[in-house]
Structures are given as structure tokens and as C-alpha cells.
Design brief:
heterodimer, A: about 300 residues, alpha/beta, ten-stranded mixed beta sheet, 10 helices, disordered N terminus, B: about 375 residues, about 70% helix
């Protein structure tokens, strides 16, 4: 990969990813040298997400304005910011989940593996099979057993699974979610019989069972106690070897603990759209952010 | 005054607890279960005393006096023994329990009367014989039972899919669109249709198609469908709205299409409630008399064919036996009561069945 010196501003992404995937995408800015591995540089691996000039609307209301960022694979990207700043909306736009709400639409592009998620003819259902999501509150399907919950994605997508294939997938996914040892003797029990933390890991197992490329997590630990939170965080660190993980969190310690890069969103006032203030390596955001607003937020002076 | 008295349960006398919540004392007297029971017993006795002047038992007066005495008694005693707040609480509790008891009385009375009088003909012959060629005593309601089952089953076959699909449309697809609002409004209007109007509509419709004098089980089933569908829509709609949106989102996030999310996630989660709603709707129409009187009429023998000819049904059979008794009159009246009892039993069986089925199908782990 040749790094030419297109001087793009810090963290804004290239526009031509879909056309020339291997072309230059250098970032250069006030942080360190771009010569050796710059953690902010777009990594040239599959499943990188390039968001360009994304505006998200709910009907006439503009919820998020003008977001551009690169989300590198095999890493954890945290999105932080005050309530209502649009970070969850932004996260949901990454797998077109925000469209579940009537009147929601976006402008701009979200490119992954040379495909624009918002390009013509793209099926949101197919997008969601590639980009999985874990929600704030654990939501296992109450009518299904633990094993069926794990297999739900495959089964509901009309994949015929033999018994052994199913059993293998259940074990593999539950092991992947660090839940196997706790539930292996009661796979036929209802998913809602588990504790909150276990339910959330079950939901993660369910999400990774459909083998997505990207895992979006919308405040996955906010309903959990510290021990369960720790379990999920350890799990995320393992999962990032395989998946591109994006996490929205209100817990700044969590962002600092697990993420590689952090984006800070904010909102100027009610009714105004949320904006991405800055995005950088997690160390930099928390130790020495470029913007005063970020500094204020991470030090707890506002928000 | 500061109260430091020990408060020893019920009947500690009028000198304790008064005003305890106004002067910083956090203790107050307590009216225990025994005390409440004593008040209730006193109220019952007081009610019974009202017989004395008249010299005969008057049940209604007994009940009314008992309830009033109980309500007033608990308030006054609690006010004396406990505190003002306790007394208000007891008063509200007493009013609500009494209201419930009053509402329950007619139900118990109806069930008791039906069982009592219906048991005269609660025999094998009643459930195996028809009225064909029967004059006077004997005979049975086999034909009416068959008619009721066939017509209600037909009505259910029509209205369950219509009602369920309408509810799915309203909850999952309609949203806040103008059309969905119209549908909701029309369903409300349908709920209010008097049953006789539904019967006349069905009759008029079949007269147009088939000519005057049309009588068939199908016409009756159509009339019942008109009455049953809005109830099914309403019940299913409520149940579908209870399914948390998070489950739908979880399913979408797995890349499951919307129709499959509805079929495999939403409906199974709501099925227990929907079933109960459907049985309620059946119970609502199974006792309808007026529309069936117009559209189906009455027959003396069994008619298994709902597409032509008159059929007997339990409500119409009951009405007919009671309104136009044959001699001996008592035999006819006994048949009417036994028929009413049969109707009550069918509804009870349906409810029990729905309960059992619901508890089997109910999502595990949901309380």
C-alpha cells in the first residue's frame, strides 16, 4: 500500500474507497508521525467502515450532522458523548437499524468492503446479516431455549441445520461469548432464566452465530452489574481479534479500558443535530484531546 | 400530647394512637386481623337484627345493612384505635372489597340458579336425543348442541383470520397512517353493532343472494362473524402491542425479514394472550340469540349441513322452550334450563381449555 500524501484533515475519510480500495488513504495531522503505524491511519484490511459526510434524519429532524470517520477492523471503536447527542442513532445507521423508525433516512455514505450500505439496491435485511448488533437491555427471545436463541439468526433465515451442525454452532458461539461453561448443562432452558449478564452474553452469542463482519454494541453494559460488565469487556477484547467492534457507551472508564479509538459526539442544544467533535486514539482523547469540548467532557466538567 | 403507650394489637381502647401521626410519635395502634374479623361479624349480626321487626328473612336488606355497617364500622374503629391515615386506608379497602362482593353476587346467583334448575334434565338423554317427534316430556338438545358448535366454529373460522390479520396490520404495518386510524375507528364502530342489526344484515344479504325466507347455519355464522371479528381484533391488537419492541429489533438485527419476525418472534410471544382473547370472543357470541333467531331459526331434528335449512342452536332452543312451552309446561322449562346449563358448561370448558393451552404456550420465564 503506497501512502501518498493526500492531505486529508484529521480523521476525515477518503471519498474514493469504493472506487480504488487500495489507493492512498493517509492521514496526517498533529499527532505523531505518519511513518510508522499510526493508530489513526485507515488499516487496509477487510471490514473497515468508511463513513463519509453522514447526515441522519428522523423526518424533518436532523439528528446527526456531517459525520465522517474511519472505523478500523480488528479493533474496538468507542463512541462517547452526552445523552441525545446522536451516537446511538449513528451506531444504528451503521447497519440500517435506525430505519425501523418511520421517516428515518440518511444522506452520505457508509462504505464497507467496497460496498455503500446506502447505495441503490442494497437490502437492509442483508446488511444486518453482515453487521450484527447487541442492545442496551439484554433481549433474548422469551419463547426460545438458550440453544434456540443462539440458533435464532440461522434458523429464522431459513438455513437448514442438521442436529450436529446446530449443536456445534451453539457450542462454538457460546464459547465465543464466554458463556458455554455456565449454560452447557441447561441449553434447553429458556433464555430468560439466565441472569442479566448471562443474558447479555447470550445475546452476543446470538449475534456472532450468524458470523457477521462487524459487531455494533449499543451501551451493552449499562443494565449490568460491575462483575457482568467485566465479563463482557473481557469478551470484547477477545472478539476484537475477529470482529470489527463499535461500542456506544456512557461509561468513560469503559471506553478508556477497552477501546482502541474513541469518537466524541456532542450536541449544541435541544433540537440541534449531534456532531462528531473529534476522534482519535483512546489515549489521546482521554489524556490530551485536541478540542476543549472533549477535554471538558472527559474530565467531567460538562455532560 | 405525646403518646408513649404500648399499642397491643386490636381493641387497645380509644385512648391510644389518636393523633399519633401529628405529634412526632412514630408508633400507632394496630387493628389486627382478629379485630377486622370482629367488625365484620358485628356487621353481619347487625344486618341479621334487621329481620326482627319484619319477622322474616330479607336477604337484600341483610346484605346492604351488613356492607354499610362494615364500611362505617371499620372506619370508626380504625380512627379510634389507629390513626386518621389508617382509617382512610381501611375505608378505601372496605369500599373496594364490598364493591367486588356486590358485583360477584349476581354471578354466583346466576350460576347457582342455572345449575340448580338445569340439573333436572342433566341426563344422558338430554345430550343424545333430539326433539324430533317429542311431545311433552323427554327429548333432548343434541341437535341444538351440534348446531351451536357448527355455527360457532364457522364464525370462528371466519373471524379469527380476519381479526388476527387486521390486528397484525394495525400493530406492525399500519403505524400512525390515516388508513390505520380509519380501520381502528371502524373496528370500534363494529364493536358497538347491536347483535340484532348484525342478524338483520346477514339475513338481508342472504335474501338478496338466495331469495326470501332463506335460513341456514351459514347466515347465522356470518352474523356472528360480524360480532366476533372486532373483539378478536381488539384483543389481538392489545396482545401484539405488549410484545416489547426490543424483541423485534433483536430479530431485525440478526437479519431476519419483517414478516418472519412477526411470524416467528412476535406471534409466538403473544400467542397465550391472543388465545385467551379469541376464547373471550367466542364466549361473546356463543350465547347470541337474536341474530340466530332471524337467520337460522329453530329445528326439531339434527341438521349437519350449515349451508341449507334451519338449525337448532342452544340459545334459540332455550328461548323457544321457555317462551313457547309445550305441555306439560315443566318439561319444557326443564329443557330450557338444562340447555342454558349446557351453554355455561361449553363456555367454561372453552375457558379452561384456553387457560391450559395458554400456560403451555406462554413464553417460559415470563412472569
Amino acid at each position: 500500500m503506497n501512502r501518498s500524501v493526500t492531505s486529508s484533515p484529521l480523521l476525515s475519510t477518503q471519498n474514493g474507497a469504493a472506487i480504488m480500495p487500495n489507493s492512498a488513504q493517509a492521514t496526517q495531522a498533529g499527532i505523531g508521525s505518519a511513518v510508522e503505524s499510526d493508530p489513526n491511519a485507515p488499516v487496509d484490511l477487510p471490514n473497515r467502515i468508511d463513513v463519509t459526510d453522514l447526515n441522519i434524519y428522523y423526518g424533518a429532524f436532523k439528528a446527526v450532522e456531517d459525520v465522517s470517520m474511519t472505523i478500523n477492523p480488528q479493533s474496538i471503536t468507542a463512541l462517547i458523548g452526552p445523552s441525545g447527542c446522536g451516537k446511538s442513532t449513528f451506531l444504528r445507521s451503521l447497519n440500517r437499524m435506525h430505519e425501523v423508525i418511520d421517516g428515518a433516512y440518511v444522506e452520505g455514505s457508509v462504505v464497507i468492503n467496497d460496498k455503500d450500505l446506502y447505495g441503490p439496491g442494497v437490502d437492509p435485511v442483508a446488511v444486518r446479516r453482515k453487521i450484527g448488533m447487541v442492545f442496551q437491555r439484554p433481549n433474548p427471545f422469551p419463547t426460545m431455549s438458550i440453544a434456540d436463541n443462539v440458533l435464532a439468526g440461522k434458523k429464522l433465515n431459513s438455513k437448514r441445520l442438521s442436529k450436529t451442525e446446530g449443536a456445534e454452532l451453539v457450542e462454538e458461539s457460546l464459547r465465543g461469548a464466554n458463556l458455554w461453561n455456565e449454560v452447557k448443562d441447561r441449553l434447553d432452558k429458556p433464555g430468560s432464566s439466565l441472569s442479566g449478564g448471562q443474558q447479555q452474553r447470550l445475546c452476543i452469542a446470538r449475534a456472532i452465530a450468524v458470523s457477521p463482519d462487524v459487531l455494533l454494541m449499543d451501551e451493552p453494559c449499562s443494565a449490568l452489574d460491575p462483575i457482568s460488565t467485566l465479563a463482557i469487556e473481557e469478551l470484547m477484547l477477545e472478539l476484537k481479534r475477529t470482529y470489527n467492534i463499535v461500542i456506544v457507551t456512557h461509561n468513560m472508564q469503559q471506553a478508556a479500558r477497552v477501546s482502541d479509538r474513541t469518537g466524541f459526539f456532542t450536541i449544541e442544544g435541544t433540537g440541534k443535530p449531534g456532531k462528531l467533535v473529534e476522534m482519535d486514539t483512546t489515549e489521546k482523547i482521554f489524556a490530551n484531546p485536541a478540542k476543549q469540548e472533549t477535554q471538558d467532557y472527559v474530565t467531567g466538567r460538562f455532560g | 400530647m405525646t403518646m408513649t403507650t404500648d399499642h397491643l394489637g386490636p381493641d387497645t381502647g380509644p385512648d391510644t394512637g389518636v393523633g399519633s401521626d401529628s405529634n412526632g410519635d412514630i408508633t400507632s395502634g394496630e387493628l389486627a386481623g382478629k379485630g377486622m374479623f370482629a367488625i365484620f361479624g358485628g356487621a353481619v349480626v347487625l344486618g341479621a337484627l334487621t329481620w326482627l321487626p319484619a319477622g322474616s328473612i330479607n336477604w337484600a336488606r341483610w346484605v346492604i345493612v351488613t356492607i354499610l355497617a362494615y364500611i362505617i364500622g371499620t372506619y370508626v374503629v380504625s380512627r379510634i384505635v389507629e390513626s386518621k391515615r389508617h382509617a382512610t386506608d381501611r375505608l378505601a379497602t372496605a369500599v373496594m372489597t364490598s364493591s367486588f362482593a356486590v358485583v360477584l353476587l349476581p354471578l354466583i346467583s346466576v350460576v347457582w340458579t342455572v345449575v340448580d334448575r338445569g340439573s333436572n334434565r342433566f341426563d344422558w338423554a338430554f345430550y343424545t336425543e333430539t326433539m324430533r317427534g317429542v311431545v311433552g316430556e323427554g327429548g333432548g338438545a343434541y341437535h341444538a348442541i351440534i348446531g351451536t358448535l357448527i355455527i360457532t366454529a364457522l364464525a370462528a373460522t371466519f373471524s379469527i383470520p380476519f381479526g388476527l390479520f387486521t390486528a397484525i396490520y394495525l400493530v406492525e404495518y399500519g403505524g400512525k397512517t390515516r388508513f390505520a386510524k380509519w380501520v381502528t375507528g371502524l373496528v370500534d364502530v363494529m364493536t358497538g353493532i347491536p347483535s340484532i342489526v348484525a342478524g338483520l344484515f346477514a339475513y338481508a344479504f342472504f335474501v338478496l343472494v338466495d331469495g326470501p325466507g332463506h335460513r341456514s347455519g351459514l347466515a347465522g355464522a356470518i352474523a356472528l362473524t360480524l360480532l366476533m371479528t372486532p373483539v378478536v381484533v381488539r384483543a389481538s391488537e392489545e396482545m401484539l402491542r405488549l410484545v416489547p419492541n426490543e424483541l423485534r429489533e433483536a430479530s431485525y438485527a440478526l437479519g431476519v425479514p419483517k414478516w418472519k419476525t412477526i411470524a416467528k418472534i412476535v406471534l409466538p410471544t403473544a400467542v397465550a394472550g391472543i388465545l385467551t382473547g379469541i376464547v373471550l370472543a367466542i364466549a361473546r357470541v356463543i350465547g347470541e340469540t337474536a341474530p340466530l333467531l332471524i337467520t337460522v331459526g329453530i329445528a326439531q331434528g339434527v341438521n349437519y349441513n350449515p349451508f341449507s335449512g334451519r338449525m337448532a342452536t342452544l340459545p334459540v332452543f332455550t328461548y323457544n322452550s321457555y317462551a313457547f312451552p309445550t305441555l306439560p309446561r315443566d318439561a319444557s322449562l326443564d329443557r330450557a334450563w338444562a340447555s342454558a346449563l349446557t351453554l355455561v358448561i361449553i363456555v367454561a370448558v372453552l375457558f379452561t381449555g384456553a387457560r391450559i393451552l395458554s400456560s403451555i404456550l406462554k413464553p417460559k420465564g415470563l412472569k
